[in-house]
């Protein structure tokens, strides 16, 4: 039977809320009736769903969803809420009615069917009432007072504060502006708690306790949102072509995908870069993407990581991924480079070939995104998704200048503000056509190029790049020598 | 490097190389570790594979594990077949060795299980 629910969201990453929910709802193919048009100004949605099971499936995925309540009453004032609940106890029609339907003159509230309440009135069912207020703080005593106002409800079971059979929730919403809190709430809600979203998972996956992290590891919450945007589910094959420390693969693996990653950075994939954590001197031996998957017991879904330059083709023609999730280099905290050299007719003598660290040239953002979208158009299964970040200067943002490809439809576009001037957008593309040729790089697509326009990386970065390369060569040589010694030792034994 | 990965890799990044597939494997260290068996995934991945390449690769490193050279037409229902495929695809790993481009002979090292497909700047010019 269709039931009405209050979905309460975390007041965080608000621009991602709609995109995450939409991705989950369409992935699970769940019909949703919106009782109130969702609005960015409110941290809640009111919806109707066919069954409670559908609600649980949604909550089982969403990291932005906090809790889900079977709605009994929604009103503008406390007294109206109580009035409605008293009417609801008598509403035996089996459906939501308005007070007008019930012949109450001069009011127009929604009254829930009595069986929702009756289902909680069993003698043996213990219960408690929780009070939550948004944007205003109340003392315990004030909260208890609010709870006592519900004493007319025909609840017959015992009150139990720890692990009761039923949790009833009373919410007061005082708006979202902490500098402008009204005396009385704008909206009040009452209902039966059904389930929570995946907020706990954010803690569980926290980078603070992650074995292997790098300078640009993606935080747990955003990684999980990306996996939801990509509609990743059990049995999928997922690729991150700029894998770094593999945070996005951890999230994809959590939702059941088998994962591949690639990155140009030899030292990173071998867990040999300088430790990222303050106070840590050397990397531990298990520091690797595989080690991270092991930490969450999902290493059975680790496929491989490969050292490779994304600007060059590597995967077999015809290989199709179920999702591509990635955070390409912006060239700010990490170099965005591809193998190359500016000298002409450069050759490398034979004896230098082995373990040579190639020199790199800048991999411009327009080229990265052009390569990425062309790759996705070619290597995604139909109907599947590419989810990637795109950095930009805020005031120059124009939606029609975002990277585009005739095979890919933009289905999600959420902004995360990074500073007063800059932001990055999480773009979600769905593959809608097959068999379209490669689209060449559009030299004008650099309209809001982050790197050139905002971050001047002229001379300093060239020097930094040289130093970094020198350090890499030394470390790499030592590492290879070590590996060889080990091998030789093994052979000797 | 697992054989499922080998099945998907090419050396077509090299100039003048057309398909760069399949890469030959030379393994100095091979490791077999236990991976949780997931028949649903194996059934899904089999149609994406070049089976002949998989079989030859497994055989070339001495780990064909009794895998038949052709796919069983009703493989989804053949547990024994799926288990063997699981082992060859996910449990056998080349720890040390190299991959060789079939057209140019260029070698790509595999160290600590990770293939290095990077070219030198001279090769991408
Ligand atoms: C923003 S970081 C990704 C971080 C990753 N999401 C994580 O959680 O650690 C971008 C990565 O792209 C890699 N990269 C830069 N240029 C590349 C190229 N041409 N091909 C492949 N990877 C490249 C960098 O080494 C870096 O690890």
TrEMBL record, chain A:
Which cellular component, as a GO term, is one annotated location?
tRNA methyltransferase complex
Where the record annotates domain tRNA (guanine(10)-N(2))-methyltransferase TRMT11 N-terminal, the positions are: 4-92, 124-199
The Gene Ontology biological process terms listed for this entry are: methylation; tRNA processing
The Gene Ontology terms for molecular function here are:
tRNA (guanine(10)-N2)-methyltransferase activity; tRNA binding
Q: What is its EC number?
A: 2.1.1.214
Q: What class of enzyme is it?
A: transferase
Known role: Catalytic subunit of the TRMT11-TRM112 methyltransferase complex, that specifically mediates the S-adenosyl-L-methionine-dependent N(2)-methylation of guanosine nucleotide at position 10 (m2G10) in tRNAs. This is one of the major tRNA (guanine-N(2))-methyltransferases.
**Member of which family?**
Belongs to the class I-like SAM-binding methyltransferase superfamily. TRM11 methyltransferase family.
Please give the name of this protein. Answer: tRNA (guanine(10)-N(2))-methyltransferase TRMT11
State the organism named in the record: Papilio xuthus
From TrEMBL, chain B:
Query: Gene3D superfamilies this protein is in?
Result: 2.20.25.10
Q: Is the Methyltransferase keyword given for this protein?
A: yes
Entries under InterPro entries matching the protein: Trm112, Trm112-like
What are the recorded Gene Ontology BP terms? rRNA (guanine-N7)-methylation; tRNA methylation
Keyword presence, Transferase: yes
- Tell me the GO molecular function terms: methyltransferase activity; protein heterodimerization activity
Annotated Pfam families: Trm112p
Arranged from A to Z, the UniProt key words for this protein are: Methyltransferase, Transferase
PANTHER family assigned: MULTIFUNCTIONAL METHYLTRANSFERASE SUBUNIT TRM112-LIKE PROTEIN, UPF0315 PROTEIN-RELATED
User: Which family does the record assign?
Assistant: Belongs to the TRM112 family.
Know the name of this protein?
A: Multifunctional methyltransferase subunit TRM112-like protein
Q: Which organism was this protein described from?
A: Papilio xuthus
The encoding gene: LOC106121234
